[in-house]
Specification:
166 residues; mainly alpha; 2 domains; 8 helices; flat
């Protein structure tokens, strides 16, 4: 590539932008580096623009949108990833890379458990026998409730001996 082409390329701007409504990449302005640097690192200008768009896609806004979708998809990671257009690997990378995202996912799951406990409590108040039995089996052990075994447990060993030929 000639020096004049490198100078022209240096002035060129590639544009990619995120659409706020659909979170799809529409346009972002990225200054193109010198061709020499692109050649050394093996990245074309298009690859660099795509890389920057990918970084934009993993922005805080996108992770927050993923949390909303996660809740709306009943805490199903696979369905959330499908709806967001990301891979499960991306989801797990976010969990590892962004502690605030991991904490938000954990808080969402805790909130779901709280909701389940409230529903169970409502069922007990409505005298739902299976719900009452469940509570007593799981939480009433100190009061004598729960699954019991009758008598002491005994282990029996059975040994087979083959008769010796006479």
């Amino acid at each position: 590539m000639t020096a004049s082409n490198a100078v022209r390329l240096k002035k060129v701007l590639q544009t990619v932008k995120l659409d706020e409504n659909t979170s799809t990449v529409m346009q972002v302005t990225v200054p193109v580096r010198k061709c020499k640097v692109s050649k050394i690192h093996g990245f074309t200008d298009a690859q660099r623009a795509k890389s920057i768009a990918t970084k934009k896609a993993s922005s805080l806004q996108t992770r927050n949108e993923a949390l909303v979708v996660f809740r709306s998809k009943h805490f199903n990671v696979g369905k959330t990833c499908e709806a967001m257009g990301i891979t499960r690997t991306t989801w797990h990378t976010w969990l590892e890379k962004f502690p605030e995202f991991k904490q938000s996912v954990s808080d969402s799951l805790e909130s779901r458990l709280d909701q389940a406990e409230e529903s169970l409590d409502t069922a007990v108040k409505m005298l739902d026998v299976p719900a009452i039995k469940y509570i007593l089996d799981k939480k009433g052990g100190s009061r004598g409730y729960g699954e019991k075994t009758e008598g002491p447990q005994t282990q029996i060993a059975i040994v087979w001996q083959t008769p010796q030929p006479a």
